[in-house]
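Final report, closing paragraph on structural work. Over the funding period we assembled a curated collection of sequence-structure pairs, and we close with a single example.
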Amino acid sequence: MNQIQQTQQPKLTDQVLARVNQIKEQQGLALPTHYNASNALNAAYLALQKVKTKNGQNALQTCDRNSVSKALLDMVLQGLSPAKEQCYFIAYGNQLQMQRSYFGAVAAVKRISGVKKVIAEVVHQDDEFELGSDEDMELIVKKFVPNFANQDKPIIGAFALIKTDEGNRYTVMTIKEIKQSWSQTRQKNNRVQQNFGQEMAKRTVLNRAAKMFINTTDDSDLLTAAINDTTKNEYDDDPKDITAEAQQEDDKAKAKDLMKQALGGEDNANSNSQEAAEPESEGQYAEVDQQLQTNEG
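Its predicted structure, as stored:
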């Protein structure tokens, strides 16, 4: 199996590279000056060898070939590389998806025309933080004074700044909004979010800022589509109310208990009809954990 993988996969990366070169010639795709697509694809191939499905199988051997090609193409279109810890790959069933790290989100947004600077910060309890508005009634951060003594205190929110030729664009999220966004991800109770809350909160607010910003620009459709697709891979666009969701789960549990009492035993039919939540694979996030721990250090 390994021999088959080694002979087939390089052909796949070669096909993606050929497609990238075709797009460059036909549609004028402009990659970052110092970005080497071939090197990025080789780094991705090495990273993919460590990606496992939730059943512990190698993603390259089990994932749909088209999904692997698309994940690699989206990576290149955004000018990202796993070697720079800008992205990572996750297998959902037989579908492979590429997701951006915080560093990847910064790099992708910087590629949009007119963007000069991209940054995100978290706000801890007791930090000085003040919002306001400019003459156009646009939200601005008037004051942000972090305090080293507050670093170990709870995160109460985060904000992102996209500095452009036309001015500054701010996006602000409370911790409740951030956690609600996390509840939309395909990986529920993600331990990366729990263990690396600061980096993940910054990435979340930057993803929202990017989504709001790029859809109002006249930049390359290829780039904006790749950024949007990567975000959609991770998040459910349908808003959910966490409180309402919890109440629904409680109602379901009570209904199930009543059904058990009525049947005098286990409600097998009802248990079979419930939607199964996709369990988190420890192997899927092991590499991401290690990457973020390196960054924190």
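The beta strands are 87-92, 95-100, 115-124, 128-133, 139-145, 155-164, 167-174. The chain is about 50% helix and 20% strand. We thank the funder for supporting this effort.
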